[in-house]
Design goal:
Chain lengths: 677, 199
């Protein structure tokens, strides 16, 4: 096992004035278990990236660059937010990315993924969507992804700080069990939970200066502030959610119990009633809409509001940043800014989603002080949280019993209660399988390339339509074959309505603006022909695409057609994450509507929301790049694909359909012309 | 320098995906001008430029060959999969729009990433998209109206794609989201040069 060595590394990332690493020396002998700790902003994450060999000289000034790993995945990296690292449509496929990048043979990929999911204690089926499982499960999937490459060293960046205490404990157990015989470096501001498993604690100060370094007992004796005291238990849970002026209420419950959903439905309801209510989402960046910190606090022209804004900035410790861009603030500063920006609008009710998650003790108490201030101003404050310190400070607590325990009681089973399936299954299926589908249709059996070919050839064929009669005939095979692909009547309507609407719009445009007299009978028939032609062009492709699975398309393009592997993987990852991106868009737009930035159709709101979504996506892409490069993606120009892309007998039929759709419109045209009369 | 790093690839596709999602919300913009376009279709061309935004943003941010094309293709593919009204036509549009912007930057050998080049890219994308729509969606439209449509397309390509895209990249730079990317390095250099002269 190799040592990890930083030998006086200096690193100034682009956009910063001061280096984040200023001549750091750190030697981690092979097999050692080390905890890096220190306040937020001390550069713990950067140290981990340096140890992983992932500092990019194109993204900053780098001196004394540390040596990188000698093979892909030699040093595994786990990020604070595991959702950023997800690139696969299923849990097993996500864990397979590393072995695929390393171009391992297919049977070995399957074997390694099975063992890695087991070693990381992932206890959901491999076919589940990794973006739909709980945070704790997600972090264990990320752990499995790292383990599948048989790392010598594991580097973990606050792996449990986004999780509730129980989920955090399961992740810690999995990490510690998997780290046997490996080097382990953890960045975390909580020392206690790791303490008995450590060989060494390194305390970092600003610029990643080493403040203390030694065996745990020695470092803790010298720095007693690292030991945390247990918070008081807080109020007992109440059945009713109390929203009262001057009361701080917490909503507790395991992740997935529906805390966020509850807040969002309260916000939606208030929006309908035009109540004075604001919701600060979990990512405070989603709340911002101004280009300066001062701008977030409302109108500067009104003297009373301006005085209030100044005092809020002072109390949040942000006065010196008044002119800065909100997105440039640190995580803790962003949280405080979002809260005072909400307070400046003087809402009657302030809702907050996990306002202290991921913050260290000092930053957490600063946020807490602001929440207490809001309460003392007479605001009704409701925070969804699993933070014991926040719970202890609350005046009322409402507990959500969302997910049932893994073993349902006999009473609920016999009552036939429709409880959601427990997340953990008894013996999960860890195989890498194709992405499961809701309802099976015959077209699902086709290779994705054949599904694409059907749509493309049909589009080419549609150009043969030259009369309205031929156009109507041309649509016949599409109408007859559609049931082989469409899943339900509702789905069909949802899919085909936009197509038909645009056909109508084209008919209207043609009737109005063609060479024929506007809106004459002749012009309308031209319009009908155009509507048929465009439907024949679009509809077969749209219908075939309902059977398209993007993961299988990636396997076909990369594995079969040998398109460049890295762009294919990147595109598939983006398409797999589209649902996640859609959820961010929903949070951003609804926050803007609540903050009075115009309705859902206002161009100003849409422009600002697009910019905010881009900031979110770009930050996410940065994290994703780290996660992927830690799994050997940078060199994955010749990679393997976990699942083969096969052509079967069904594809012969598919091919025949494609050819039929190509030639039929021309045939229909001839057929019409040859009819007597 | 021209090799796509992992982050370049992921940023390009992320820009495309973000717009693919946002485009679903943009349908509302068309309903705003609905009464106008029902009577005079070519006016709809005035909004055409927003569809090429992913390409021009990716080119200005990533500054490498292929970024514009990749971003626009992802946006188009996503739109098609999420149930866009033009099916495979969307992907052809994506190729032409991404390719058009790509040509604009290629003419300056990927060395200039300024407002005029962005506007040129938008105009070329608009011209190519017009050719496609003229012959595939509006072949029966009279030439008078088709040329009016072209005029709206070109203006929109220059302003809503080129100028707005360029402004959006400036705004993104201010947020720090571009710091690790080529566009962020320029900003950093300017800022540090200004700090040195001030001192």
């Amino acid at each position: 096992m190799r040592d990890l060595l930083l030998d006086g590394v200096r690193w100034r990332p682009t956009g910063r004035d001061e280096p984040t690493l200023d001549g750091l020396r750190l030697h981690v002998p092979g097999g050692q278990k080390v905890l890096l700790t220190g306040v937020s902003g001390s550069g713990k994450s950067t140290v981990l990236r340096a140890l992983a060999g992932l500092l990019d000289p194109e993204a900053g000034d780098l001196e004394q660059a540390p040596t990188g790993p000698s093979r892909p995945g030699e040093r595994g990296l786990l990020l604070q937010n595991p959702a950023h690292a997800v690139v696969g449509a299923t849990v097993a496929r996500d864990a397979a990315i590393g072995p695929e990048n390393a171009a391992l043979p297919r049977p070995e990929i399957h074997e390694r993924v099975r063992r890695a999911l087991e070693a990381a204690a992932v206890d959901v089926d491999g076919s589940r969507d990794p973006l739909a499982v709980s945070g704790g499960q997600q972090q264990r999937v990320a752990l499995a992804g790292a383990l599948a490459l048989h790392p010598e060293a594991m580097l973990l960046d606050e792996p449990t700080s986004m999780l509730d205490p129980e989920a955090a404990a399961t992740v810690r157990r999995a990490v510690l069990a998997a780290s046997a015989g490996r080097t382990l470096v953890i960045a975390d501001h909580h020392v206690e939970p790791w303490r008995e498993h450590l060989d060494r604690i390194v305390v970092l100060g600003p610029g990643a200066q080493v403040l203390a370094d030694g065996p745990p007992e020695e470092v803790l004796a010298r720095r007693p502030e690292l030991q945390e005291t247990e918070p008081a238990p807080g109020p007992a849970p109440e059945a009713e959610l109390r929203i009262e002026p001057g009361l701080l209420t917490v909503v507790t419950g395991a992740s997935g119990a529906g805390k966020t959903t509850l807040l969002r439905s309260l916000a939606a309801e208030a929006g309908r009633r035009r109540g004075s209510l604001l919701l600060v989402p979990q990512d405070p960046a989603h709340f911002f809409l101004a280009s300066t910190v001062r701008g977030e606090l409302g109108d500067a022209a009104d003297p009373a509001a301006a005085a209030d804004a100044r005092s809020l900035l002072d109390r949040a410790g942000l006065a010196h940043l008044a002119g800065a861009n909100p997105h440039r603030l640190s995580g803790g500063e962003q949280r405080r800014l979002a809260i005072i920006a909400a307070l400046a609008a003087r809402p009657e009710v302030l809702l907050l989603d996990e306002p202290t998650v991921g913050l260290d003790a000092e930053r957490r108490s600063a946020v807490l002080a602001l929440l207490e201030e809001a309460r003392d101003r007479g605001t009704a404050v409701v925070a969804a949280s699993h933070d014991p310190v926040l719970v202890a400070a609350a005046g009322s607590r409402h507990h959500l019993e969302g997910t049932p325990s893994p073993a349902p009681t006999a009473a609920s089973a016999s009552a036939g209660a429709t409880t959601p399936a427990p997340e953990a299954s008894a013996e999960p299926d860890r195989r890498i399988l194709p992405v499961p589908r809701a309802a099976h249709r015959p077209a699902d059996a086709l290779n994705p390339l054949m599904l694409c070919l059907i749509g493309i050839l049909a589009a080419v064929g549609s150009y043969a339509v030259s009369t309205w009669q031929g156009g109507l005939l041309a649509l016949l095979p599409t109408v007859l074959l559609a049931p082989l692909a469409l899943r339900s009547v509702r789905g069909a309507v949802w899919r085909l309505t936009p197509v038909l609407l645009s056909a109508v719009s084209i008919a209207w445009t043609t009737a109005l603006l063609s060479e024929a007299p506007a809106l004459s009978g002749e012009a309308w028939l031209l319009g009908l022909k155009e509507a048929c032609r465009i439907t024949a062009f679009v509809a077969p492709g749209v219908i075939a695409l309902t059977s398209l699975d993007v993961t299988a398309l990636g396997d076909a393009l990369g594995g079969r057609l040998r398109w460049p592997a890295r762009p294919v993987v990147a595109v598939v990852a983006a398409l797999v994450r589209a649902g996640h991106t859609g959820r961010q868009w929903e949070i951003i737009t609804s926050t803007r509507v609540l903050r009075g930035r115009g309705g859902r159709r206002s161009p100003r709101m849409l422009a600002g929301a697009t910019l905010a979504l881009l900031v979110d996506s770009l930050r996410g892409a940065e994290q994703q790049a780290l996660a992927l490069d830690a799994r050997g993606f940078a060199t994955a120009t010749r990679r393997t694909w976990a699942l083969p892309s096969r052509f079967t007998r069904a594809d012969l039929v598919g091919g025949a359909v494609a050819v039929l759709l190509l030639v039929w419109p021309a045939l229909a045209q001839l057929l019409w012309a040859s009819l007597p009369g | 320098m021209t090799r796509m790093r992992t982050i370049d690839l992921l940023v390009s596709v992320a820009i495309g995906a973000a717009f693919g999602v946002a485009f679903l919300g943009y349908g509302a913009l068309y309903s705003l001008i609905g009464p106008l376009t029902a009577a005079f279709k070519p006016a709809e061309g005035i909004l055409a430029g927003i569809w090429f935004l992913p390409a021009v943003l990716a080119a200005l941010i990533v500054r490498k060959p292929g970024a514009a094309l990749l971003a626009e293709l992802v946006a188009a593919t996503l739109e098609m999969i999420l149930g866009g009204q033009w099916g495979w036509g969307t992907v052809v549009s994506g190729l032409l729009q991404g390719g058009g912007v790509e040509i604009g930057f290629l003419l300056f050998v990927y060395r200039r990433f300024t407002l005029p080049v962005a506007m040129l890219g938008g105009v070329i994308a608009a011209a190519l998209e017009w050719v496609w729509e003229r012959f595939s969606y509006y072949p029966e439209m009279s030439w008078t109206f088709a040329l009016l449509l072209l005029a709206f397309f070109l203006v929109s390509g220059a302003l809503l794609c080129g100028a707005l895209g360029w402004a959006a990249v400036r705004a993104l730079g201010a947020t720090g989201a571009l710091d690790a990317l080529p566009a962020g390095r320029d900003r950093d250099r300017e800022r540090r040069a200004a700090a040195t002269t001030a001192a």
